[in-house]
């Protein structure tokens, strides 16, 4: 496993060692990708199930015949990469792509996810490997402090997504937690890599307000598809409150779909060897209100990635039992 503490220390040291850095807001960045099948996912903190919801959505799309690839942009905490690939000792990585060592197509890894109801094949671009620490990380951070190289990096980010969007039916961009100060430049650059973004939070009103502010700061040029309140205590009172939160956030960011997903242990099964495979491969959707909600949202995703139009205003999806 990647030594995340070492990586965190390195990143924060690099941040402190540079006074000022690049003011990205004053740079002429490229427009965001035009590919409708490039979907971003963001949350204000870790541990609220963003990776889980993203994986469930991806698996359900694969079960519908789509080719799905995940890009893990979180070089600080590559949870998605670890969940899909188990270990990240060496090999291709997004970091190597961004500093020009390899092309994005060379960083793609195929992996098979198996559950009680069958197996699916998905593809992933891992964020980082242990061999990227510290030299390649240092190099990337250095380049993000030089205006001319920042433009080169963001052009490479956008071009990489556009290339993959032509080869795969769906490209999921798994974004890092945007509240890390270290990621200031990086976060602004990511705003070019998706045509739609989903904002996920828990039921904490402060977190919901934070993600609205972070979206306004970093990704406001990406239209919001879904505002999702996840891991809601499955009681009528809590679900109604969370649904109002999701709707309020949706209206604030001009989203298209608002929903509150009740906590369901099926989505977070843990075995001795780690997390279980996605619940969509282990249980029928009808067995779980959470899976049924995700299925309904995937209906919208499928329409969007095929070039169709989502709901025109905040449509509220409610759990069914």
Short description:
The protein is 39% helix and 18% strand.
Describe the structure.
By secondary structure, this protein is α/β, with parallel strands linked by helices. 39% of the residues lie in helices and 18% in strands. The protein has 10 helices and 11 strands. It has helices spanning 4-17, 50-63, 79-85, 94-98, 135-143, 147-167, 184-190, 205-219, 236-252, 289-305, and strands spanning 38-42, 68-72, 109-115, 118-125, 170-174, 196-201, 224-232, 257-262, 270-271, 274-275, 315-317. Strand 3 (109-115) and strand 4 (118-125) form a beta hairpin. Helix 2 packs across helix 10 (289-305) and helix 8 (205-219) runs parallel beside helix 9. The longest helix is centred in the middle third of the chain and has 21 residues, at 147-167. 48% of the residues are buried.
């Amino acid at each position: 496993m990647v030594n995340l503490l070492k990586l965190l220390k390195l990143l924060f040291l690099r941040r402190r060692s540079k006074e000022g850095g690049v003011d990205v807001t004053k740079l002429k960045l490229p427009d965001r990708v035009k590919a409708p099948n490039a979907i971003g996912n963001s949350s204000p903190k870790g541990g609220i199930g963003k990776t889980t919801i993203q994986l469930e959505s991806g698996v359900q799309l694969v079960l519908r015949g789509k080719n799905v690839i995940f890009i893990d942009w979180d070089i600080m905490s590559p949870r998605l990469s670890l969940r899909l690939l188990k270990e990240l000792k060496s090999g291709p990585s997004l970091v190597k792509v961004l500093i020009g060592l390899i092309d994005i197509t060379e960083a793609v890894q195929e992996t098979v996810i198996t559950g009680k109801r069958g197996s699916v094949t998905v593809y992933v671009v891992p964020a980082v490997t242990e061999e990227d620490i510290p030299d390649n990380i240092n190099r990337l951070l250095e380049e993000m402090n030089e205006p001319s190289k920042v433009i080169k990096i963001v052009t490479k980010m956008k071009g990489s997504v556009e290339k993959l969007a032509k080869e795969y039916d769906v490209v999921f961009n798994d974004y890092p937690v945007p509240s890390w100060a270290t990621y200031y430049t990086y976060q602004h650059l990511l705003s070019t890599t998706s045509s739609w973004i989903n904002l996920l939070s828990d039921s904490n009103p402060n977190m919901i307000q934070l993600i609205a502010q972070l979206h306004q700061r970093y990704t406001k040029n990406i239209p919001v598809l879904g505002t999702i309140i996840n891991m809601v205590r499955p009681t009528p009172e809590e679900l109604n409150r969370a649904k109002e939160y999701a709707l309020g956030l949706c209206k604030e960011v001009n989203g298209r779909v608002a929903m509150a997903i009740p906590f369901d242990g099926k989505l977070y099964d843990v075995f001795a060897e780690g997390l279980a495979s996605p619940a969509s491969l282990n249980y029928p959707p009808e067995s779980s209100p959470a899976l049924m909600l995700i299925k309904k949202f995937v209906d919208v995703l499928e329409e969007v990635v095929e070039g169709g139009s989502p709901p025109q205003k905040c449509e509220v999806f409610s759990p069914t039992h």
